[in-house]
Automatic annotation (TrEMBL):
Chain's role: Catalyzes the oxidative decarboxylation of isocitrate to 2-oxoglutarate and carbon dioxide with the concomitant reduction of NADP(+).
Name the record gives this protein: Isocitrate dehydrogenase [NADP]
GO molecular function, a single term: metal ion binding
Keyword entries, A-Z: Glyoxylate bypass, Magnesium, Manganese, Metal-binding, NADP, Oxidoreductase, Tricarboxylic acid cycle
Assembly and interaction partners: Homodimer.
Alphabetical list of Gene3D superfamilies matching this protein: 3.30.70.1570, Isopropylmalate Dehydrogenase
Domain Isopropylmalate dehydrogenase-like: from-to ranges: 5-337
GO annotation (BP), single: glyoxylate cycle
This enzyme's EC code(s): 1.1.1.42
Origin species: bacterium (Candidatus Blackallbacteria) CG17_big_fil_post_rev_8_21_14_2_50_48_46
NCBIfam families: PRK09222.1 (NF006673)
Reaction equations catalysed: D-threo-isocitrate + NADP(+) = 2-oxoglutarate + CO2 + NADPH
Amino acid sequence: MNAVPITLAPGDGIGPEITQAVLRVLEAGGAEISPEIVEIGEAAYSKTCLDGISAQAWESIERTGVLLKGPTQIREGRGYLASTQALEIRLGLYASLQPCISYAPYIPSQFKKMDVIVIRENEEELYGDLEYRQTKNVCQGLKLISLPGTYQILRYAFDLARSCSRKKVTVLSKDKVMEFTDGYFHSLLEELAASYPELKYEHQSLDVGTALLTDHPENFDVIVIPSLYGDILSALITKVSFSKPGMSAYAALGKKHMLFEAAHDPAPALAGQNLANPSGMLLAAIYLLIHIHQHEAAERIHNAWLATLEAGIHTPDIFREEQSLHQVGTLEFANAIIPHLGMRPRHFQAVNYQQSDSDAFFAFKPKPPQTEIGERTLMGVDIFLDYPAHNPEKLAHKLKNLNAGVLDLELISNLGVLVWPEFIPETRISDHWHCRFMHQEPGLSISERDILDLLTELQAQGFDFIKTENLYAFGGNPAFSA
């Protein structure tokens, strides 16, 4: 077999030393790879790469299609972007996959039984980097969720569950609060689940589901979740399952490119001391081997790692006198794995990777055809004002007296709370006002000219409008929050 070219970014902090340890194990385990070392992280930031990714790295990733990445520092400041986020956005890495498994009693964990896969949508929601300061006191971030993106991530979750003989798919969202954005995850769940009759499925409110997960993780199997929620949940579940961050890895999937990464920070305080746990980076490399169809090497290395844990050979972060036998450093841990190559664990379930696992874990799921939801009709407009007064009734009086044509003021809210036509004096008021205008005759549509005339009138009367949002119905059904 010819060695497969891969892009390798050791990263920052402990990244170079755990990378060195992992490469030693990969070579001994029979991995046929040809790493191209590139700069991602602080070195690239220092060379004015705002995303922390060098031009050489982008060129290599585009050519190899596969990146094994160590932990990297995030440069703070305006204009800088986290390297992992930049990779996900630019390469179209639509899903992240993070297995969370308890290795008790050999590794400290709150639970003896936990084997959960968290699948997070990567491209949408609040990570679109669309934020605005609209008034002196109020900022806004746009949450964008699409039908094709939601369908794609849910379908991937169901296909993965089926291929890996999992039993249940759980969706976590806040659809009762965010009916249209998070609502996609709930409504499409019902539609897609019909094609997978052998799988159980459920939707849980994010807060309730998270509480249940941290109490009884054995009741969960495959979890699929929107981007921001998933980012938080992944960190939480990693802490619950491993107790130590050095044990975690994740993969990000796209149509042409794949990212495999140690899912922990670069721990600069430990750098250069031979104390770091390379397990997260090693697991990321194992997922990479599965993707490039080197299943025998992946299986051999994974089982050797499990056998090493069972043998009580542990790095300082997971060493416990009552359970561990030998405390070793980063490179010594790697060296300890090598004699276990060819062995299988006795307590843990041994892994058995096959050709089908590459398709199960890392196959791209195409986007569905456009769903027909009916004709779009313009029904009204939400206009947001920067207005310093704190009396909703006076503002409403001024707006009702505008020469607004066919449009009429229907409601006013402030920071998402209705303040007109009903107002509770205790409600906190800001300078950011949301004013909804609809046709004077309920149910009738309006035109864009009606909106332009209203904005002209607002400007003439001295109002400072900072944003507008058209209100549509699709197929006669209102497509905006009440």
